[in-house]
Amino acid sequence: METKVLRSQLLELIRRTSCELPDDLIRALDKSRRKEKKGTTARYALDVMRENVDLARDKSQPLCQDTGTIICYVDLPKWITEKQFQSAYESAVKTATNKGFLRQNSVDSITGENSGTNLGPGSPAIHFHQASGKSLGVRMMLKGGGSENVSCQYSLPNNKLGAGRDIEGVRKCILDAVQNAQGKGCGPGILGVCIGSDRGSGFVAAKEQFFRQLDDTNDDKLLSKLEKKLLKQANTLGIGPMGFGGETTLMGIKICARNRVPASFFVSISYMCWAYRRNGFLLTESGKINRWLYEGK
Amino acid sequence: MILEAPFTEEKLRKLKLGDVVEITGLIYTGRDAVHKYLHDGNKPPVDLKDSIIYHCGPVVVKEKGEWVVKAAGPTTSIREEPYQGPLMEQYGIRGVIGKGGMGSKTLAACKKVGACYFHAIGGAAQVLAEKVVKVSDVHLLNEFGSPEAVWEFQVVKFPVVVTMDSHGKSLHAKVENASAKALAQLV
């Protein structure tokens, strides 16, 4: 594939991720709207969100001005190297920033200087995996600062919450995190959770949950049950859209479990705002898009 | 309900918790870097008397020599809690637009100076950018970079909800207390 073609396809992926809310999220937002009574502040908030989704798509402009941390997962087939991909991707990120699909969001942590291009040490973040097939698979996520700031990690046992090293303890941590996130992450939110693992890998696994379809079912029966139960309980808290009070506090919870060392028991919770920007595609060697991963259904 | 510049104490005192308000006039963006900068004693780049500060780091690009706002929703306000109250009192800031609400210090300042906290819908960057009809100027752009600069926005019918008023009432405190009680039932 010519580099030029790859660059332009990646630019289109970034544009869509930033400007278009995926179909599964639109369905969830509409469902939430139906639950809130007309005339309430909660309904008003959801109406504005819905209007924003259409406007962003039609104008081809970012859903949210905080285009967040740029995270990308790549399934790399044999016909392209990591270096070739990275170079094309960084060039696409730079162009997307110039065009206003991405905000200038990469700041030097020591000097405070904004690079203006979204390029710099660690940004954009790329996770490479070897592809099993012939297509180049790229999935990306733009995660805003507000939602990242309320993501958190618990170490069990937790005395304050009376949470032990079991599923009941995990449940208490998750509900506590929802209470603490109010007014900071833009609700109705979605949680990605990892039970176990180490502190670093736990957060990575928690974030990867956001690549699941919002209305899928967890393959693990116990976790599937826990997801449903917690979603129901979180929505009895009454925090509501934007913390205005209301029926929908969360639109989804996605949980995974990883092995841990005997001494540690972490619960890593990643919060995603309603402006849930993720997308992905499969690209053939000739540069044609085989399939958009989150469209339709 | 409509709120038009000049943003006087009289107009702001009339607003109550839960009012849906459309703001028209000149507002200034200001977030983390600017709040710390002013709190450290630096002179404001604009006159803040009777002003409205918008906690927002917009996407702005230059097209044909003009600044154009591409996205402009609110950022989380609570990060400015240590600075906001004192700055409101010092400069006579009459309103703050942001998201998520603020704490008791800011609520007390709203009561004292006759100001409101206006909640814009987070993530609704396009609906809100549509209401910015002109960017009249920008300050501290080189010092802080585009998201942290002070942008002068001329807005028309900018939609917000009063979630903290000048009479000591806060929707955020109310919801937080209620949800804490509901949580206690579940754990």
Task: Explain what this protein looks like in three dimensions.
The radius of gyration of chain A is 19 Å and the shape is globular. In chain A, helix 2 packs antiparallel against helix 3 (41-59) and helix 6 runs parallel beside helix 8. In chain A, helix 4 links the parallel strand 1 (69-76) and strand 2. Chain A is built from eight helices and nine strands. Chain A has 297 residues and is an alpha+beta fold. Chain A has two domains: 3-20 and 63-144 and 277-292, 2-Layer Sandwich (Dihydrodipicolinate Reductase, domain 2); 146-272, no CATH class. Chain B is an alpha/beta fold and 187 residues long. Chain B has a five-stranded mixed beta barrel. In chain B, helix 4 (104-113) links the parallel strand 6 (95-98) and strand 7 (116-119). The longest helix of chain B is centred in the last third of the chain and has 16 residues, at 171-186. Chains A and B meet through helix 3, helix 5 and helix 6 of A and helix 5, strand 9 and helix 7 of B.
Oligomer: heterodimer
Residues in helices of chain A, as a percent range:
25-40%
Question: What is the string of SSEs of chain A from the N terminus onward?
Answer: HHHEHEEHEHEHHEEEE
Low-pLDDT segments of chain A: none
- How much is the radius of gyration of chain B in Å? 16 Å
Q: What's the CATH H-level superfamily name of chain B?
A: Fe-S hydro-lyase, tartrate dehydratase beta-type, catalytic domain
Distance between the termini of chain B: 41 Å
Uncertain residue ranges of chain B: none
Binned, the helix content of chain B reads 25-40%
Pair with the most extensive interface? A-B, 57 and 48 residues
| Main pleated-sheet profile of chain B | 5 strands, mixed, barrel
